Amino acid sequence: MGAPEAVTVTSAVLRDWPLPPPGAGKESRGRTLVVGGSTRTPGAVLLAAESALRSGAGKLQVATTATTAIPMGVALPEALVMPLPETEGGGIDPACADGELSDFAEQAHATLLGVGAIGEHDVRALLERLVPRLRGPVVLDALGLAPVTADHTFLHHLDGQAVLTPNLAELAIVLDASPEEVEDDVAAATVALAAATRCVVAAGGAESWIAAPDGRVWRDAAGGAGLGVSGSGDVLAGIVTGLCARGADPAQAAVWGVHLHGRAGDRLASSVGRLGFLARELPARIPPVLAEIEV
Fold it and tell me: What is the largest CA-CA distance in the chain?
């Protein structure tokens, strides 16, 4: 397929594309809503939610399963935590889309859907009821990609105000391609998904690719092998969502988010080791990287 012409992301590139001014208070940096989790995977929401705050989001709301809501609130005292009804399997009951969750989502400046969610049928039903009411920006990660896999037009109504953050395995599934085909040309696969879904897509392995539906493409080599660890994708999705809440458009949020994620990994690689650092260690590295770039 051949890789498209791409901008290589560096700190200099980002300084020429500054994030919106942060403002003085939390309301000026947007309201972020993270929806996901289960009784089996509650930590994904914690990673994503903290990462949104570490990237500068102002006001945080988390909606997760009732069983995990109180522990989540204790672990993340900065957030409003909404308990959601559960399925028998410990996931989110899609019926909650018609209740208070819908009100919260409609008022959010940026919404992250899917991190840590389980039960493909239930997740797809939840998002099919909730997403049509949103006007973006929306970030879909992990099983949150299920409705897009079923219908590439699912997010067309958002007019580009959405970001997909698949790993390479998920990218292959959404495109109905073999993993080998995607791994052979990640750039082209990312561009193809962006065009089909009319969303910004951020995907990668040893290097990351970001594609916008208008044809713009970026390549980022920051991060390295250490980022291939459980929870790393949840951190990336949270960073992107937090930047959207601050007012960055989806393409800018994805490009900045991928670079911040990668540079945080680079810092851990130098202090901990190339392999063996944990996803939970990434969020605290984001503010220093942000400050370094924005000097």
Answer: 50
